[in-house]
């Protein structure tokens, strides 16, 4: 099985898992060449260019005889984030992942809004999210804190772990079945690489000390595939600074199933949940059934998703206009009177 990794391809042991068939020569493992980068350079593509499928970490790729990427195979899932760049709207963080481990530290306190944001990203990817709360050893009541996080992670398994002492990793190891791909996402310093190393049973990724203010140092600077002896694959990623959301209504409804259920009970289907009569969301906020933080978080992510959608629409419209302009110009050229000889 050949998969795209940081600028190269990596041969992941083929364990007879149903997957795309490979054509062409399979390079010896690990591949020292840089076929992915070569393909990008050849085609003049940036890593997150749109309009062409550019290999991302985790992609299955077909190589040509020269060992260059000839084709990226269709993705079963893709973890995508919004980029603020002008030339590109989205960036594929990882492709063909089965499980997204949303990694959040217990010390400093977990950021519930960030967990909700990453869960939405994960739901949208098509993979199954799992929340991993790290540094359980640094807090007196990790289970109480995990219960608080569980309240915002509906329908998602939440585990508190101490990766440095190999505590609480059992349920995660159970997920590492042959052929399964997991990606870790979360802020810098949360302990993603430490977790990857603990699950891999070797120091596959360098880890970093936290700064005095508890923030991370952005130790991991690229995304990397880490194949495990048992046949599962982990993808480590750099700490996400600000994660732009590429959400859709469905992903948000997954993350905020409680709010969505309330909103469905409002008298008006286009209720803005401000002061409309018969607003079930307002009633839940007033009674304390729904807390303001979660409501605000939902609102913010909904706004972002709507903005993202408008941006995509505007881009599509601009592309369509450009296409027509080109067609019209070609048409005119085609009908230009031929000068007499
Ligand atoms: N006490 C304690 N420290 C931990 C635990 N997990 C990770 N750490 C420490 O947290 C620091 C940051 O860990 P990393 O694994 O480098 O964090 P990261 O999420 O990969 O960070 P970036 O690569 O910057 O995104 C290191 O000093 C780890 O030893 C834990 O369970 N308990
Ligand atoms: Mg790291
Ligand atoms: Zn309402």
TrEMBL record:
Alphabetized UniProt keyword annotations: Cytoplasm, GTP-binding, Hydrolase, Metal-binding, Nucleotide-binding, Ribosome biogenesis, RNA-binding, rRNA-binding, Zinc
Recorded GO CC terms: cytoplasm
Entry EC no(s): 3.6.1.-
SUPFAM superfamilies: P-loop containing nucleoside triphosphate hydrolases
Enzyme class of the recorded protein, top EC level: hydrolase
Cofactor(s), names only, from the UniProt record: Zn(2+)
Gene3D superfamilies cross-referenced by the UniProt entry: P-loop containing nucleotide triphosphate hydrolases (3.40.50.300), Probable gtpase engc, domain 3 (1.10.40.50)
CDD domains, per the entry: YjeQ_EngC (cd01854)
All copies of domain CP-type G, residue ranges: 86-243
Pfam families in UniProt: RsgA_GTPase
Molecular function (Gene Ontology), one example: rRNA binding
Residues engaged in binding Zn(2+): 266, 271, 273, 279
Binding, GTP: 134-137, 186-194
Note describing how the cofactor binds: Binds 1 zinc ion per subunit.
Alphabetical GO biological process terms: ribosomal small subunit biogenesis
Ranges for domain EngC GTPase: 95-241
Subcellular location field: Cytoplasm
Family: Belongs to the TRAFAC class YlqF/YawG GTPase family. RsgA subfamily.
Function recorded in the entry: One of several proteins that assist in the late maturation steps of the functional core of the 30S ribosomal subunit. Helps release RbfA from mature subunits. May play a role in the assembly of ribosomal proteins into the subunit. Circularly permuted GTPase that catalyzes slow GTP hydrolysis, GTPase activity is stimulated by the 30S ribosomal subunit.
Assembly and interaction partners: Monomer. Associates with 30S ribosomal subunit, binds 16S rRNA.
HAMAP family, alphabetized: GTPase_RsgA
Protein name according to UniProt: Small ribosomal subunit biogenesis GTPase RsgA
Species of provenance: Cellulomonas uda
